[in-house]
Amino acid sequence: MIKRDLYLNRLISKRKNGLVKIITGFRRCGKSYLLFNIFKDYLNSAGVDGDHIISIALTHFDVGSQMKSIEHPPDLPSSPAPSEVLSSAASTSG
Predict the structure, then answer these.
(1) What are the distances in angstroms from CA 88 to CA 59, 80, 81, 85?
(2) pLDDT tens digits for 25-64?
(3) Measured between alpha carbons, how far is 40 from 43 in angstroms, rounded to an integer?
(4) How far, in Å, CA of 70 to CA of 22, rounded?
């Protein structure tokens, strides 16, 4: 196994800054392993409850069906179409 201490320490140091962490890199370079194994093990050893760790493997994610629920969540009103917003703004700015 390749040690990824540098990357792990960077994740740990930024853990509580309130920002989403984005890991990028070439295909098959260990991004998923870093997050799903190494960082998850660290979180568990640091006392984070397993119920508070969410893992989503996007390679097995049905993007099409998920995007529909993201575009129009059931408990939020739908947004007006961009053309409606533009025509509304044009009619009020005279």
Answers:
(1) 41, 10, 11, 5
(2) 898 888 989 988 999 999 999 999 988 888 877 766 565 6
(3) 5
(4) 20
Q: Residue ranges of the domains in the chain?
A: 5-92
Look at the pTM and tell me if it is higher than 0.70. Answer: no
36 Cβ contact partners less than 8 Å away, ≥ 6 residues apart: 55, 57
The DSSP line for the chain is ----HHHHHHHHHTTTSS-------STTSSHHHIIIIIIHHHHHHTT--GGG-----GGG--HHHHHHHHHS-TTSPPPPPHHHHHHHHHHH--
